[in-house]
Amino acid sequence: MYDRVLVPTDGSDAAMAAATNALDVAKRYGATVHVLYVVDVRMSPISTGMDREEVLDLLELSDRHPTASVRARAEAAGVPVVEAVRLGVPHETIRAYVAENDVDLVVMGTHGRTGLAHALLGSVTERVLRSVDVPVLTVRSGAGPPPESDTDE
Length: 153
What we know:
Layout: E1 4-8, H1 13-29, E2 32-40, H2 52-61, H3 68-77, E3 81-88, H4 90-100, E4 105-110, H5 115-121, H6 124-131, E5 136-140
Parallel strand pairs: 1-2, 1-4, 2-3, 4-5
Helix pairs in contact: 1-3, 4-6
């Protein structure tokens, strides 16, 4: 049913909860997990004159690679993993990654913002949900993996 499961990450608790669910789904279906970190160009050092390659090189040299924790969890679970770091507007970059990599399922965390905070900040998850043509599983921070299926596979 699923061959490629995308979990965009920003390192938050909600993203880690999504990763837990993505790894569980991938393990159940023998899928590969794609973990994607998007450097938001609207808030990146590009405004200081750094170009795209300099930003990506800086991330590579960092001792805190933004996809490393999900990669380590996937490897420990025996789930194939592909890491990617992209520069762009998060929801647009996620949408493009889904199309370019023939992703079957996107698993994303939600931060549970409501009211004014949601209106002012917007929601990457909501924008992805509205703009991709594949299922999107949303996971709240602290949520565990989906319950075991009662059906035989």
